[in-house]
Amino acid sequence: MPDGRSGSGRYSHAMARRGSYAKGIAKREEILAVALERVATQGFRRTSIRDIAAAVGLTQAGLLHYFDSKDELWVAVLRRRDDADRAAQWDAPDLASLLAAVVRHNAEVPGLVQLFVNLSAAAATDPEHPAHGYFRERYESSRARMTADFQAMQADGRLRSDLEPEELASALLAVADGLQIQWLYDPTRDMAEHVELVTRLAMAEVTART
């Protein structure tokens, strides 16, 4: 039975919905860009949802229409930071060196380090926290990539053969993330230098033989 709408009417309605969806995606991207910039430059604790909302022309309630909660927004900011790090053309011969380069870059954006440390502490102790899945996924994927990289380094003689690649990957991630807490207390500590120290120790036997 005809629905009483012309074909052009249905087309216009579909176009309007697609246009509304596209505007929603664009606004969400704008919110993320502003939130990332604010956290990076003025710090996590000094960045409020109200300030971000005002910067993009929304109320707090309007902003949270695009995210389930403020913690969901912070998780999305971390994911955006990760995307930017992956897209960067880091000058690193392997993943261990890449991790050091990322850590060195993090020292330039202390607000994002604050955000990471705060969310990771909350998410680690509460499986229901919005960030729990993000950190679990992040550690699993990072550990898998680094393990594969270390196995390749062992195969071509660049890494000690008596080390377990997955254990080394876990240890290096622990060093990198743990140093961020120390660095927040004392910004004079060189996080990247300590990450590179672990890598040098792992390669020490190879270096001594060459």
Automatic annotation (TrEMBL):
Keywords: DNA-binding, Repressor, Transcription, Transcription regulation. Residues 48-67 bind DNA. Gene3D superfamilies: Tetracycline Repressor, domain 2. InterPro entries: BetI_C, Homeodomain-like_sf, HTH_TetR, Tet_transcr_reg_TetR-rel_C_sf. The keyword Cell membrane does not apply. Residues 25-85 form the HTH tetR-type domain. Coiled coil: none annotated. Pfam families: TetR_C_6, TetR_N. The keyword Transcription regulation applies. This is TetR/AcrR family transcriptional regulator.
